[in-house]
Structures are given as structure tokens and as C-alpha cells.
Amino acid sequence: MDFDLTKLLFTLLGLLIVLNWGILMSGIIRKIGARVAKRYGIPVYQGWIDLIKNYAIRSQITHGIMFYLGPVFRLSGGVGLFLFMPMIFGSEHWSNYSFQGDLILLMYFQFFGMLGMALGAGEGGHPNSAIGISRGLSQFTTIEVPMTLAVIAIAIQYHTLSIADIVAAQQGSILNWTVFTNPFATVAAMLSVLGAFGHSPFNLVKAPNEIPIGPPTEYHGTFLGVLRTNAAILHVIEAVLFMNLFFGGASNWFELFLKSFLIYFWSVFVGMVFPRFRIEQSVRWFLKIPTLLGIIAIILA
Amino acid sequence: MEQLINKLQKSFKLSDVKHQRENLTFVTVKKDSALDLVTHCRDYEGFSHFVLLSCVDWIEDGKFQLTYLLNNPSGKFDLGIRTFISRDNASMTSAHLLWRQIATYQRELKEMYGIDFPGSPRVDESFILEGWDEIPPMRREFDTKKYSEDTYFPREGRGSNDPATYMKSKLYPDDEK
Amino acid sequence: MTSLKDILSPFTAWKNVILEPVTIKDPINDRPGAARYRGFHKNDITKCIGCGTCEDICENEAIDMVPVEGIETKDGDSGLRPKIDYGRCCWCALCVDVCTTNSLSMSNEYKWIDTDPDNFRFIPGVDKKSWDDNEAGWKKPEPNYEFYGLKRAEMGELHPEERDHSFIEFIKGYSKQQAQEEADRCVECGICTATCPAHMGIPDYIRAIRNDDIEEGLRVLYETNPLPEICGRICTHKCESVCSIGHKGEPLSIRWLKRYIADQVESEHYKKILETENLVKNGKKVAIIGAGPSGLSAAYYLSLLGYECTIFEKLPEAGGMMRYGIPEYRLPYDQIDKDINYILSLGVEIRYNVNIGSDITLDQLHLDYDAVFAGTGLHLGRSTRIDGSDHENVYQSIELLRKITLGEEIHVAEKIVVIGGGNVAMDITRSLARLQKIKYGKVQTLATSLETEDKMPADREEVVEAREEGAIIDPGWAPQSIEIVDGKVKGLHVTQCLSLFDATGAFNPQCNLDNKKFFEADMVVESIGQGMDLGYISENIKDNLTMGPRGRIQVDKYFQTSLPWLFLGGDIIQGPDVIHGIANGHQAARGIDNYLNAKG
Amino acid sequence: MMKNSIFNISPDRSKYPEKDAEGNLMVDLDSQKYVKLWQGPQHPGVTGNMSLELTISGDEIIQAKTHVGYLHRGFEKLMERRKYIQCFPTCIRMCVAEPDYNEYNLAAGIEELSGIEVPEMAQWLRTLVLEMARLQSLLRVVPGQGGTFALGLGVQWGVYLRDLILDLFEELTGGRVYHMYILPGGVRGLLPDGFKKRMEETLKKIDEFVVNIDNLMFSNAVFKQRAKDVGIIQPEWIDQFGIVGPNARSAGFMRDVRKDYPYLVYDQLDFEPMTMNYSDIYNRARLRWHDLIMTVDLIRQIMAKIPETGDIKAPTPNVLHWKIPRNETYIRSESSRGEYGFYMVSDGTDKPRRINLRGPSYVHAISLLEHMLINANIADTAAIMVSLQTCPPEIER
Amino acid sequence: MTNETNNIVEDKLELEDKFLAPENRKRQVTTPDGTIIEVDPLRDYFSDARPQIYRPNSIPVIENFLNWARAESLWVLGFGTGCGSIELPPLTTPRFDAYRFGVQMRATPRQSNVFIISGYLSVKTLKRVVRSYEQMPNPKYVIALGSCTINGGMYYDSYNTINRLDQYMPVDVYIAGCMPRPEALLAGFNKLKELIKAGKAEKANEYVENFDWYKANQKKIIKDWNMPDYNW
Fold this sequence. Notes:
The complex is a heteropentamer of chains A (301), B (177), C (600), D (397) and E (232).
Chain B (H helix, E strand, L loop, with lengths): L1 H10 L3 E7 L2 E6 L1 H14 L4 E10 L4 E10 L4 E10 L15 H12 L30 H9 L10 H9 L6
Parallel strand pairs in B: 2-5
Antiparallel strand pairs in B: 1-2, 3-4, 4-5
Chain C lengths: L3 H5 L18 H4 L10 E3 L9 H5 L5 E5 L12 E6 L8 H5 L5 E3 L6 E2 L6 E2 L37 H4 L12 H9 L6 H5 L6 H9 L3 H11 L3 H7 L3 H5 L11 H11 L5 H4 L11 E5 L3 H12 L3 E5 L8 H4 L8 H13 L3 E3 L10 H7 L2 E4 L5 E2 L12 E3 H10 L9 E4 L3 H18 L4 E4 L11 H9 L3 E2 L3 E9 L2 E14 L5 E14 L2 E4 L3 E2 L7 H6 L21 E3 L2 H4 L3 H22 L1
Parallel strand pairs in C: 7-8, 7-10, 8-9, 10-21, 12-19, 13-14, 13-19, 14-15
Antiparallel strand pairs in C: 1-4, 2-3, 3-6, 11-20, 16-17, 17-18
Chain E lengths: L2 H14 L10 E4 L5 E4 L1 H4 L15 H13 L1 E4 L10 H5 L10 E4 L7 E4 L5 H13 L5 E5 H6 L21 E3 L6 H16 L5 H7 L1 H11 L11
Parallel strand pairs in E: 3-4, 5-6, 6-7
Antiparallel strand pairs in E: 1-2
Helix pairs in contact in E: 3-7
């Protein structure tokens, strides 16, 4: 592949858009969540202020080199996901560096950040982060099971591992979306979304009233800023991934915003009203219903 | 209640029986028979609920008063069993085997009054205080105000006047008394 | 297995998303405290008397009593004001509830943010704060909510029908329970101490009553007052007029409590309790003229210091005005004797029926004694000098009272008018009323005074009791003339009195001449004040004395005249008042001691 | 409980950690098998300011120690040097969640020791205040159980309603959290105008909340999974540990001071505290939810029966020097956590000789909690603690 | 840490005294009020490293902008140290909803900027508070609630509570009350925001500048310095 400056610039611009949309989106979601609790909640722009504040923290305490690298790994996981994710269907500029078989890479990148985090947080030496990491990894592994099953199902269905191709296959009519063509896979994947976004009932990883904040408990200031930046990107990208796989992708930015918002909102919609599972309960849960659905999806496909 | 006391009177030497309310009576027994009485009441008189173990410092008599307050949930009455122990080298038989919670009370009494309960679990661990090296604070000779003033320096700049003395100094300053 | 309801019903919570949030838009400004909220303190600085009760009840020692500029210390006001430390306060409002004057209250303001912790101290009412004008906020709950009794303990009294024909003491005195009940009301502020001329340790002896420690009480009494039985009955109790409880309710009956202590102790135990069994004499001698309160007081305290005292008394018995000016129903003679006998038992010598000037001269006393104290009292009556006041049936109250005490026969007419509104006027009114009752079976005594009822100098209860006993009190009239027809007194013409003092404060009664009245009477008694008789002081001494205003002899704070050996005290210096006399005597005793010690 | 044993990952703890001859656990932290985990005092999941020292193996607790004393202010010492009236502002701070029981117990104790009768109106008002205190506490605790499982919504609603009750408290007593309303002899004020109306408005909102919280928490599949069969109190522990109040009632023991030893005007009110016969977290939360409904009902009854006006305070000795002869007593009342008792000793002076608080948390949070946490999952610690409704300030005072 | 390990540390100290870096050696320090105290860094300081002073950005525009962000995003450490913590839930729930003003609760000191000392501090808690405070990143702010932090409040004569918070850590804002209502707390946040925006909330540096004095005060009352043996 030749070096293409325009593509790089568009990719960076896309990253910027995604980042800001991520911050705005979580702001809106939190505001909606606050409404359920009968209050007004934060201003929608609070996310940016928090981010600036975090970068404005003067002192950084380190627990070693891996401690530095943790957020970096995490960020590269998020950015990596972004890089290989076609954002807008049919757009030359906004398809980033997607390629045939990118689906497999994305599955890997999803895990990559978590592992990086594990290394960094482990270095922090705080037992809460260690417990959080071990829970996070085991939960993430089980989330991946139905997710992978669903992906395999649609890969079988569409005979491709390229996201762009999957999106392309869903064009035409709304009925062509995977959600209608392969409902079992979609349901399995949507259930694993609940875990992927880290809202209750599957947020034991960060359970504040047990192991405060979990893995990032030692991170502060700039580190936390990086983590939060990554979270903003990751939330959008994961939503975009599901959008691409199951909801027909997006043909313009507006459609992307809307669909990613709705997918993200789904996890909040559930998370708001359900308490969190214990780790073995959530593992058990993921290994039961969503996995079963995923297997059904594969069989049907 | 009267009947019960009369009954207990036969096997234990009760003194100072005081019927405070129709459902609350205090009795005093000797140190050696206190726990026997407590055990007897638990096992045979239906006092299955242990309410509290408390200590009163009668510094003028040189004694600690230990009060075991038992409750009979079915009869709905309480019996306070008092016993007096010496303030010097205060020590009492541990009752932690009777009810699980007593160990906590004994830990507290050890820390706050310096009463030893040999054999009580974790009785020597600090319970509420941390790094305390003064005399046990609930003992009456411990002056908490003085300790606080010496240790935690209250904010300066306060000062008050007694109205009577102040008026004296203003109105008849030369008056001797 | 989980039912579908268990999965779906939680989602009902999402209905809130379309409802308006319940959040308060601007909580900082929109939420004043409730009407009863215990916010920051306010103090009505003019009502506050600085009694310090708030300081006493504050469990956090958050309140300091501090002097405030512009507020003078005076009788009934210590001049101190509470300063509250908000580094201590817990807003329990006990200080508000206990406040004796209801001056302290709370606003409903509750926001005070500061970066300097030393700023959280202020004097409410003096340091201006934004909440000073807040109407809402905690006030003491009403009614029937008090931290101490506002009503006096009931005092046993003889019923008017029982007492109006005899001179038996009619105030029975407190029982132990009543005394303790009354003593319990005291808040121990000590405002009264300064007002009491003798500066008695009032809170201390009241505390002794509460603790049922009568002996301690007696010791406190005798520190400043050697005549507790007498004072406990007829003291003018200026202390009660400033009692802080009096702002909300009835002031403590400090006088009766004093009497209670003295009543409880038998006279034979006095010496033991007061530890005066073995007084050491120092060999110096002091002569005291007049066995009145000041003379007795001086004699007592001088004896304690070891001086040998001799009292010269003109009348056949000791007590002065207390015996000869106050009727027996108020102050029985045996009680006077109890106090005096104790003083005499300390070795004080008393010589009765000795008239200084004629029997022995002052100069002689000067030679015979190291110092002389004179407390001779005001034994001369003053006349109104209106037309007819020189008639023989116009009497001076002080003379009549003396005669009653001496047991002499006095003229009691069927209808009597007394001119005067003071305590002496009430005494003679009530004495005459009793005599009338005995003689005629009915009371026809009327007392009138210049002052209107609310300004009458007599004690309130005297007026009330006099009325109970059948006397008529008709104040607010200025006597104009006594009508005499055929040489007999027919009555008194009066006009309405509008004001007593002019703008400069001088005594200058203004009358409404149109509003007249006529009191029928066969006998008129004048009781408008007394004068002193300094006849015993020879001219050569008088010439050496510096005179002060209003014809009085000038003395220093130790009642020492310009002749260093001569001390004067009591009514002739301070005006008629037992407790002043006692205080003077005590102070003069100190002065004499100082003087003689300095002399060597 | 779990039928499919494939997914049951709880290991068998009957063999290890090994116990020594005296039955103490042999926990060697250097063996790498165990981790020592401190929860608190700076910890959002711990009720109040206390800490748990947990020894964990994996996600499982094998040893727990409660550490208290972070809130120790020496109240009992401080009260020994305060006059009786001065004890009131001090003692109410012994439990910040429901200060009124302190006020009531101390006042009732002083009244009993000095033989003062409280006017009827004051008795009603006291009952009202105590029930309001229970209500505001339950409004925090009932949804708080969901909060420990990250179901924060209920807490948000509950704390809002609690605030409305606090507003009513403010109107009635002048204080928001520390009310200082009950004093020896009576109370400090009559009902303000329109109080009953505003109370009814608030109670209506609470009625609504009761339904909402039932939908959100008690009919919630995840909540049920988390709360059922966890944190069980065995019936035989009730007497062994001295468990009182709702925790005992959930295990089938009727322990309610209001019924057992009626005080104030509770004998004129119609109520029946609930008992259950299986005490896990879910049932205890459910029991408190029923208590909440009962409390609302009790307040309605009080509002209907309370006299219009009357004396609020009996005459008392002067509070500045109120002496009580040597005597002792034990006063109890039913707080939302159970029997709340004051052991009071007077010695003839104007200051108490000893006031000893017996709070329900004293046993619940220490001996019972330490026992219950063994073999529990660390994710459930906060839930177990909250389900016992522990309140650290009353433990350490 | 057990006593045994303590002894080992002590033994080491004697041996290694001369090998220590100068800032870790025992030395005498003059406090702001003029008294001279002895400081032994290895035994007296909790943190591994002595805290540093972080100067504000030298470019006013940038510093103002950052201060604005810091002021509008106040993350509060969820540590209920005393009674006042009962008023923190109302603050974050519908009635008062402090989130509107950029105030959020955080569970870990590392991510918090504001420490609300909610009332009295017992000695035992003070130790944890100091520890948490030192873990918070610079800039950090302290809000002191109620009488107890100003001059001891109710507990002025208690043997177990401190009287003056400013002796142990620098305080930005005091709020009067016992306890202050949530509204007062919100007003306190406003005041704090003002201070931050004006660049006057540099108390974290003040703490470092007078570190030895603060430590001496803390050391005077905290007699048991043992902490759990990991960095929590």
C-alpha cells in the first residue's frame, strides 16, 4: 500500500470526529440517565472539561514503566480498532485502513487494550486493580464467546471476513440488515454488547462500591485523560462495529451518529435498571443464553 | 419478677435488689458468683438474649461496677446483674463462651477501662483507639478536656468574663473581698 | 427460573425520563430555612442583660461573654454580650431557650463560607450580619416551655382577716421544699450581686439552699451581712428588681431565701458554724454611735478583726430604725434580738440610753477610743408644710412608729389619711389600720401619694397587702391643704399630680388644679421622708468636716470623713435603707481597720 | 442451590485454609494463596466510616475482621462531664442516620430517674418524630440495598424522598439532620400550621415510591439472583449473637420493642411488625420494605389521632442544675435497626455517671458480620453489610 | 507491618544513616511558627517520595484556562470522615444534583481533586485522611465542613478528635454549620470555584512548602504510624 497523505489526514480527522462524538454521546447518555433518576445531571459538555482537567493535573505518580504503558496500550487498542474500521459505507475517505479479513484483526484489538490495561494496572500494585483486572479478563473472555459465535455466524452467512463487504451485503433495503436476516446472531451479539460497554449488570470490573474503580484505580491525571480519551473512542467504535455488522452500516456521518448512539443507548437502557452480576454469575450468564443463541445462529447459517 | 428473685436468692447471694420498673430489676452479686448467676439465668431462667455488658467507674469507692444485662424475650423482662471488682489490676473472668458478642464488649472494656478478661478472643488487640498510650480514657481520673487542650491546641483568641466578677471590677473595683 | 415479569418490570423506571426532574433549580438562593430553622444567631442587644446563662448552658463552650463598646455596665446589665464561636457551636438553640430575657434568637440563614478559620466568631447584634433582620428562625417555644420556673414558690401567709387586727408576723417563711423549689429557679448569673449594696454572694447562698447545705449558706450570708434575719424580712431587695429571671417571670424571692437560711439555724449554733468561737483581740477600741444596721454591721466586722467595740445607743433597745421604724408584723422583735444577740455575743459592748452630745461628747469618744463610727440614722420626720400641717392631729409617721414600738399610747382617729407613697408610709398605714381594726372594728385609713400607682416607691406587695387589709391606697394626688374646722381636722384637699420632675430632673411637681379631691379625715399622718439629726456633732468638729451636697457630710469610699478618726455611715450618708446601712458598716469597718493599721 | 454443578465454581472450603489445634485459621500470607484486602475506611461500599480487613482467596473471603474506631469521639466520656441537658446535643450525634432515638432514650431515662410525667401531646409528638426518623432512615436503606449491587436509581429516588422528610423535620423541629426536638419533660414545639397536609403530600409520594421500588428492585431478575440465598442468618444465631430488630424478625423471631415493651403511645396504634422465616439479603430487604409501608401507615395513624394542641413540656427542675439521685436504669426503643438501648447510671450530681449506648450495630457489624463474611464472595461484602444495616458511629460512639 | 519488621527497619537505619540521601536523613527543621523540630523522613513520611512543589503554568492565559477547567470539574473523594457525610448523598441525588455544577464523586483519591472533610476527625481517621490527601494529585483542594474542623466543635474536649484541621493539612474553604446543609455545601463549592479561577487555590503547594511542620503536627498526635503494607 502506498503512503497516502490524504487518507492519513482523513483518518486523523475521522478520529477527531469520533473522539468528540464519543464525549458528546456519553454526555447525552448520562444526561438521559440522570433524567431517569429525576434529576438534570451534568452539562453535556462536561466530558470535555473533565478531559481538560485531567490533562491539567500537574503531578503524576508512577509505579514503573508498565504503569505508563498501560494507558498507551489501551489507547492503541482503541485507535487500532478505529484504524481498521470502515466508518461510512461507500466513502473513499472514511473507510480508514480497512481490508479483507479486518474482522479478525478487530476481534483481536478488542482484546488488546484490555491486556495492556492488565499489564499497567498490575504494575500499580493495588489489590483492587489486580482483582479488577482478573475479573475483567475473565468476563471479557466470556463476552467474546457469544460475540465470536455471532461473528462466525455472519461470516458464514456473508462468506466474508471484511467488514466493508458485510456492510455492502446489507445495503438496499432495511430488511437486508443482519438483524432481520440473522436475528439469533444479532441477539447474541447485542447481549454481549452489554458486557462490552461495561455497564451493569456486567460492570463488576470497575465496581466502585467494592473495588473502587477497579483496574484504573491508581491512574490519575494524564493517564486517566488518556484512558478517558480511549473510552470515548472505544464506545463509538464498538457501536460502529455492531452497526456495521448488524444494522446495515452508515452511509453518512449523521446516520453513523444516530445508529451508534442507539446501540450505545441500548446498553445504558438495560444497565440503568439492573444491578450488576457477580463475576461468576456474569460468566455463567454469558456462557448460557448468548452462547446458546450464537450456536443457534451458526447452525442456522 | 419477685418470684424469680426469691428463687435466685436461694442459690445465690443477691444483695441490693432494686426493682427499677416492673420489667427491670437490678441485683448485686459477688464477683465469683456473677458468671454462675449469668449462666444459670441463661440456661434455666430463659434469659436467652444478652443485652449488654457495661462498666461504671466508682472511683471514690475504688471499684468498677460491671453490669451484665440479660433479657428474657419470652417473659419480656430484664435482669441487670451487678458485680463490683477492684479498680487496681482490674480483672474479670471472661464470659465469651456464653454469647459470641461478649468478646467485643470485653475488648472494649479492656481498652476503655483497662479491665482484663484473660482468655477472651482478641482482647488485647486495639479496638477503637489506635496507638493509645495514656491511661484508659473512660477511667474517671482521665481528664479528657485537659488532654484535648494539651494535644490538639484549641484556637487561640478566646476569653470570657463571668458577669458577676466583671460587674464587680467595673462597678466597685476597689471593694475588697 | 426467572419470570418474564422480573426482567420487564424494572424497565418501568424509564417512565421518569419524560417527567420533569424534581431538582431545585437554584438551591443556593431558593431555599430559605424553615420558619423554625435553627440558623445563625441574632441578639437583641438592648434587651440582653449579659447574664451569661447562654454561656452556662452551652455544652461546647462556644459562647464567651465579652465587653462591648457602647454598652455600659450598670445595675441589672453586666455590660457583657455573648460572642459566639462558630468553630464550636452546634446550633442546638439551648442558649435561645434558656435566655433569661428572650433577647437571643436565631435566624433562618445558614450559609457562611470563609477561607479564614479565625473569622468564625462574632457578637450577634453588635457585629452586623446579613441575617440580623431575618424574621424567621428559631424562637423559644411558647407557651409552657421553660427551662426553669417562672413562678415563685408559694409563700405561706396569714390571711388578711387573720392578720388585720394583730401585729403578729404574717409571712410564714419558706418550708424546706418551698425554699428548694425557689432556689432551683436561680440561674446563678450573679447580676444581683453588684446591685446589692452589700454585694452579697446571692448565687452562692442560693446554691447552698439547693444543696441543702444550710451551714454553708449561713457562712456566705455572714460574709457580707451580719443581720440576715432582719434583711431576710425587710430588706428593700434591690437584687430582686434586677433578677434576670424577672425579665420573663417573677424574680426570685432572694429575700425570703435569705430568711430561710437564717430561720433554719438556732442562734446557739451560730458561733460554731461561723467559726467565731475564739476571736483574737488586738487591743484597739472603736466607738460606735447608734445600734442601727450600719453600727451593728461595723461592730460585727470590727469584732471579727479583733477590735473591741462599744456601741452607744440613745434608745433603750438596739436595732435603730429596724426596731423603731418598722412595725412588728413585718419584723418581729425576737428576730431582731436573734441577730443582735449574736453580734453582742462576740464581745461587743452596748450602752443603752446614752445620748451623745449630752451624756458623753464626741470629743470624749475621740479621746477614749481609737476611732469612732457614727451611724445615727434618720429619726426626724419631714413635714409637707401645707396649710394646717402644724395642727396637733397631724403627725409624723416616724414618730408614731417609734411610739408603737415603745408601747406608748398613740392617738388613733376613726378616719385617717396618710400622705406618702414609700414603704414607711405603707408601714404606718397598715399599723394604723390594725389599730383601727382593734379599736373600732373597721378600717378607715387612706394613703395618698404624689406618685402614680406604677411609680410609687413602696414595694408592690406592700401596697397589695395594705389593700388586702382594708386600707385604701389612692395615689397620684398632690396635697394642697388640710381643712381644719373648729380646730379639728376635717380632711385633706388634693389635686391631681401630673408630673414630679421637670425637664432638668429637679423635684418640681406639676398639678392639674382642675381635678380636685377631698379626703375626709380626723387625723393626718405625714410620711414623705426623714431628716437627720446631727446635733451630737459639736460645732468645733463640724467646722472641720467637709460638707457635700444637700447638707450631707462628705465621706470617702471608706466612709471616712475629713477627720480621719471619724467614720460616718448608714442612712445619714446613703438615705434610708437597711442593706445600704449594713454595707456601709462593713465598708467602714474595713476603712477603720486600714486607718488603724496605718496609724500603727 | 445451583443445580448445574458445572457452573458452580465455589470451592470446598472445608479442608483449607487449615485450622490449628485451637480452631484458628492458619493463614500464611506469604504462601501466595491469600490476599489481604482492606475495605475502608475510604471506601464507597462500606457503610459509614469503618473498615473490613478481609483475607481472600480468589474471590472468596476466608477471614474477616471489622475495624472500627474511625468515628470514635468518646461520647460516653464527654457526657460524663456534661450536665444532663448538655448531654442532648452531644448524644444525638451518636448516630447520624437516626439521631432521634438518642434524644428519646436519654430523655426517657432522665424522666424515669427523676420521676417526671410527660404530657400526652408531647408523647404523640415524640412518637411522630421517632417514626419520621425511621421513615427517613428506611428511605435510604431500602433502596440502598440495591445500591450495593450498583442499582443506584432507587437510591436516587429514596434519598430525594428522605430529603422531603427532612424538610418536614426542619419545619417541625428546626433542624435538618440533628433535630434536638425531644428534651426531658417534653418536646420543643407543636405541629406548625399545615403540617398535616404537607405530610400527607409527602406520604403520597412515598406510596408511589414503594410501588416503584418494588418494580425496580424486588421484581428484578438480577437483584433476585444477587440477593437470594446470600448472607443467610441462621435462626440459632439470634440468641447466640444477640441479634435484634429486623434482622431477627427476618429469621422468624418477633423482636420489636414497640410491641414487646410498648412505650410512648405505641399501644394506641394499630400495627403488626412482619416476621419471615428465612433470612437472606433479599428477605431482609423485603422486610425493610414492609417496614417502610408500615411506618407510612403508622405516621398516617398518628396524624389522624394526634390531639390538636396540648402541653408540650412538663415542668422540670432548672436544667442548669438538675441533679438526679444515685440510680440506674436501662431504656430501650426500637430504631429502624432494632433495639436501641441506653444504660444510664446517675450518681446524685448534675452530671450522669455513665451512659452506655447499646446499639444494634454493635453486634451486627462486628461479631455477626465477621461470622457471616466467611466464605462469602467479596462482591457481596457491601451487600451483606448493608443488609444488616450497620451504622458505625453507634458502635464506637 | 509487624513489630518485627519495624525493628529491622530501625536497625537498617542506624547502619545506613550515612549512606542516605540528604533529604532522607534525620535533621532539624524550623517550622513557620519558629520552633525547631526534629524530622526523620524515613520514619515520618508516608509517601515513598517527598511531595514536590508544582508551580502553576507560567503563561497566564494557559493557567487561567486550565484553572477554569479545574474549577468546573471538581471530583470529590468519596470519603465520609464524619457526620457531614450524611449530607453528601442528598448532594448527588435529585434534590440538589451537584452534578449540574461539575461536582462528581470519585471512589479513589488518585482521581479526586477535592477532599471534603465532613466534620470531626478522630486521630485514627486523620491518619487515613492524611494518607488519602497525600495520594491525591496536585492541584488538590480541601473543603472543611462544620464547626469541628474550625475549632473542635462539639468535640472540643474529646480525647480522640482533633480541634483544628488547619494544623494538619491546608484548607481552602470552611463552611460553618453543624452540619452544614447541602445548600451551604454548594455555596462552598462556588466559593472554591472562585478561588480556583482566581488562581488562589494553591494550598497543595503550601502543604509541600511547610511539609515538615505539618508532619510534625501530625506526628505529635498519630502515635501508631503503621499502615497496611501496600500502597492503598
